[in-house]
């Protein structure tokens, strides 16, 4: 309490000093250098404006009391060590609340320790008065050198799909802290999606396909490969092909590689940096089934082609979207994985999956309070293949009926 009072008095003092000096200068100059007794005539103006500032500051401190007291309560400070004197402590301070983005900024005159905020996030949430820990999500970002930005937001755990989420030239990836999140089709890269059984992978896969189909005019062909299921065979569209046969898949990759190289030739002739035509996109569900196949030579050929497509595909608009429960080297060779630029991570208890798709735990903790193994169904972290930005998303639920009616919708439109 004493700390708050001190903070308030210092802050009020600064504001009043600036106000009075400003008023004095205005009067002084408008009255062509009036004497002090001239200024005295305006004492009521000083009094009223001083009172207004006092009330405004008081309301501000009462309103953001919890945020002002937070660095003090949680001992968020930085210190300088001087050889002669004792070390000096600089406490972090609440700077401002940005209403538009619902973000709170804290600053420190020396430099700020973002990790301390990440480590204390549960206590911060508690201190701010959110009793139910699951009620609110927490994102923390470094802002300038000496500030951290804390954004509190809510993500629904479950919501329904509707066709209005589809958008021309964009892929809808779910809802993030600001609402619907779209990846421009132009920025799509070859990507890996991993999540354990029941995490909502198939649901997510179908949702991505809807966005791709909505953008059919920019996509030459979509190839679906699933060696263990028939879910993707339901689409039966003029611009899609499905295979559950490994030899056919091998031929397809050979084909895609040739197509990619032809596109490169054309680009070279035209001196284009990116291919000036439509995308070829291949979706592979459960890539692990290829790794377990007995024919070593066939597997090797497939994986070599996947590596090449992953490496060079983006400029020529030939892309791979690979889905897998696990991404260790027994499921997907490391060379294939490292050449997929983007990643999507759903619920998993495997630290290997997390590290090799998104990165360190600390990076995950910056954007969510929920551990990846506790993610609800359909919760995804997307790592952008171009910018490496990480985004926390919740994907809508697609019931069987919704999936069937969407497939019918695309059949009526594309197969016409
Ligand atoms: N976004 C979502 N929101 C709510 N519930 C979901 C969501 N996605 C999936 N579910 C629920 O989770 C169940 C499993 O989803 P899904 O089949 O997509 O998971 P999966 O990871 O593909 O599992 P598997 O690998 O075993 O097929 C679904 O039947 C559905 O009820």
Summarize the structure.
This protein has about 425 residues and is an alpha/beta fold. It has 14 helices and 16 strands. α1 packs antiparallel against α3 (about 45-65), α7 (about 200-215) runs parallel beside α14 and α8 (about 245-270) packs parallel to α10 (about 295-315).
Description:
It is a single chain. By secondary structure, the protein is α/β, with parallel strands linked by helices. It folds into three domains: 2-63, no CATH class; 80-153, no CATH class; 163-414, Rossmann fold, CATH 3.40.50. Helix content is 42%, strand content 22%. It is built from 14 helices and 16 strands. It has helices spanning 2-30, 36-40, 43-63, 65-73, 114-119, 121-127, 201-214, 246-270, 288-291, 296-316, 334-337, 351-357, 361-367, 400-414, and strands spanning 77-80, 88-91, 93-98, 103-107, 137-143, 147-153, 170-176, 179-184, 191-194, 219-226, 240-243, 279-285, 318-324, 342-345, 379-383, 390-394. An eight-stranded mixed beta sheet has the order 11-10-12-13-9-14-15-16, sandwiched between helices. A four-stranded antiparallel beta sheet has the order 3-4-6-5. Helix 7 (201-214) packs parallel to helix 14. The longest helix is centred in the N-terminal third of the chain and has 29 residues, at 2-30. It is elongated. The protein starts with a helix and ends with a helix. The structure holds adenosine-5'-triphosphate. The site of adenosine-5'-triphosphate (ATP) has 14 residues, from helix 7. One of its GO terms (molecular function) is ATP binding. ATP binds at residues 195-202. InterPro entries: FtsK/SpoIIIE/SftA, FtsK_dom, P-loop_NTPase. The chain crosses the membrane at residues 7-30, 42-62. Pfam families: FtsK_SpoIIIE (PF01580).
